[in-house]
Amino acid sequence: MTDPRDDLLLLDNQLCFALVTAARNIVSIYRPILEPLGITHPQYLVMLALWERSPRSLSDLAGTIALEPATASPLVKRLESIGLVQRERRPDDERRLDITLTDDGRALRGRALDVPGEVMAQTGLSPRELADIRDVLAPFSGPQKVA
Predict the structure, then answer these.
(1) What is the rounded distance in angstroms from the CA atom of residue 41 to the CA atom of residue 10?
(2) Which CATH class is domain 39-112?
(3) What's the CA gap between 46 and 126, in Å, rounded?
């Protein structure tokens, strides 16, 4: 007789596996949509945060997109190299690095307005379905929670 808990260890029954494969597949949908904008999916997340509020400190920006500053920094440097953002030290606090949008970075927002609709078209999900998925995942999203 088999242990009824054996099914709990099947790969296809793992929440972590479903989430990681879904995330990878969703990001792959974004890739060709973002390509004409000249940015990658992680860079898109940086731009979304800056379109909401700019300037932002590097640490605030990293926290907003749920990355460590050391991981966000190369993304910001690349966006700076293509002219979408600018990094500036604060005159009153040399330790703080502020990230601001350039004119080109602000203009890119207009071109990005079609991205969500294209993602919906590619996934076949309605705005309500996407919102439902987002809302279910919300307690587990955002900056890492330390117990």
Answers:
(1) 31
(2) mainly alpha
(3) 25
In 22-145, at which residue ranges do the beta strands (DSSP E only) sit? Answer: 56-57, 85-90, 93-101
Taking the C-alpha atoms of residue 68 and residue 101, their distance in angstroms, rounded to an integer, is: 20
Q: Which two tokens stand for residue 130?
A: 């996407």
Q: What are the contacts of 38-45 at 24+ separation with CB within 8 A? A: 38/82, 39/79, 39/82, 39/84, 39/108, 42/67, 42/75, 43/75, 43/78, 43/79, 44/112, 44/115
142 pLDDT tier (thresholds 50, 70, 90): low
From residue 28, give the alpha-carbon distance in Å to each of 2, 42, 60, 68, 83: 39, 12, 27, 23, 25
pTM check: above 0.85 = yes
As a whole number, mean pLDDT of residues 47-64 equals 95
Other Cβ atoms closer than 10 A to 48: 14
**Averaged pLDDT, 117-141:** 91
Long-range contact pairs involving 88-94 (C-beta distance under 8 Å, separation at least 24): 88/55
